[in-house]
Amino acid sequence: MRPLHRTKGFVILIFCTVLGLLMTTYGPNSIRFLEGLIPMDVCPLPYGRKLWDGTDGFLDLWARTDVQTCTYWGAPIIWEGMFDPSVFDQLHKEKSTRVALTVFAVGRYLDAYLLPFLMSAEQYFMVGLPVTYYVFTDYPEKIPSLKLGQGRTLEVIQVARENRWQDVSMMRMKTITDAIDGHIHHQCEYVFCFDVDQIFTGRFGSEALGDSVALLHSFYYHRPKMFYTYDHNPKSEAYMDKGDFYYHAAVFGGRWQKVRNLTEACYQGIMKDKENEVEALWHDESHLNKYLFLHKPTKVLSPEYCWSMFIGHRNDIRVHRLLWAQKQYNALRN
Ligand code: UDP
Ligand code: MN
């Protein structure tokens, strides 16, 4: 029989060889492979090279080795430390990039959330760029007046109030499509769509702009895929039995053409479900996840871009750019 210390040494040698092979082949993303042996999404970009982000600025995918910074289809995942904010801002100021922000404040959500949302957006959202806020509400007279920064404007658009909160949430897809067709496409290159029940607490800047931008859900990004709450009902258009990530519908965006494709497709899925008398598990979010699985986003935002203090502190979350507000479902929903 072999002495025990020799067997141990042999096991350690094998382990180190495998780890070395993984690190040289996949770089820092191989860390995820070891983390609970989750099937790994391999970054196809060459190790060590900075990524030129379209025309916007450089992203250093290897500035963060503690998190996944790149998807297997080559889209960057944006984390603090990967970019120089001043370079992005300078380039977008020169181009005078115009950004639309859509937000819905229907029923009791208006009083509860809208003002802090808008005031904090003035402080942190795309500062220095021309921004138009599109506020959709059933009660335009109640929109608070707000002094906006230079080049920033606000438009109020009246919408009918749906009876069920699920429909308020889902029908945003239709309203956003119509608003892009009607106003936004003349005025802005990019559109970002937000839930109102959140508050900006840190820079949410031009590094977040991209063709098609999706957000990793703070509750699921570090969990194995088996926990993702996709829609598993084959009767729904949102049905999926596998996916890449679990995206959060509280923030999505991109060039208006891409956002329009997404909102239109989700709306069609929602209407088809209504015809078939089914509803996806997480409503518009389930349809959004299905769409983004079939049409990969070109940029992914880390949960630093929408964190929940309910989760508390995690070492990989270095900044809080947007925080969930307190949920008050009982008081606010019908
Ligand atoms: N919303 C609204 N009034 C409602 C229900 C929803 O204005 O009665 C809008 C609001 O912008 C809200 C978004 O739809 O942030 C999504 O709903 P909610 O935030 O309740 O969903 P959750 O974040 O819990 O998934
Ligand atoms: Mn919300």
Automatic annotation (TrEMBL):
It is a single-pass type II membrane protein. This is Alpha 1,3-galactosyltransferase 2. The active site is at E285 (nucleophile). Its cofactor is Mn(2+). An alpha-L-fucosyl-(1->2)-beta-D-galactosyl derivative binds at H217, T229, E285. Keywords: Glycosyltransferase, Manganese, Membrane, Metal-binding, Signal-anchor, Transferase, Transmembrane, Transmembrane helix. The chain crosses the membrane at residues 9-27. GO terms for molecular function: hexosyltransferase activity; metal ion binding. It comes from the Eukaryota. InterPro entries: Glyco_trans_6, Nucleotide-diphossugar_trans. It holds the Pfam family Glyco_transf_6. One of its GO terms (cellular component) is membrane. Belongs to the glycosyltransferase 6 family. UDP-N-acetyl-alpha-D-galactosamine binds at F104, A105, V106, Y109, D195, V196, D197. Gene3D superfamilies: Spore Coat Polysaccharide Biosynthesis Protein SpsA, Chain A (3.90.550.10). SUPFAM superfamilies: Nucleotide-diphospho-sugar transferases. One of its GO terms (biological process) is carbohydrate metabolic process. The keyword Glycosyltransferase applies. It is found in: Membrane. Mn(2+) binds at D195, D197. Binds 1 Mn(2+) ion per subunit.
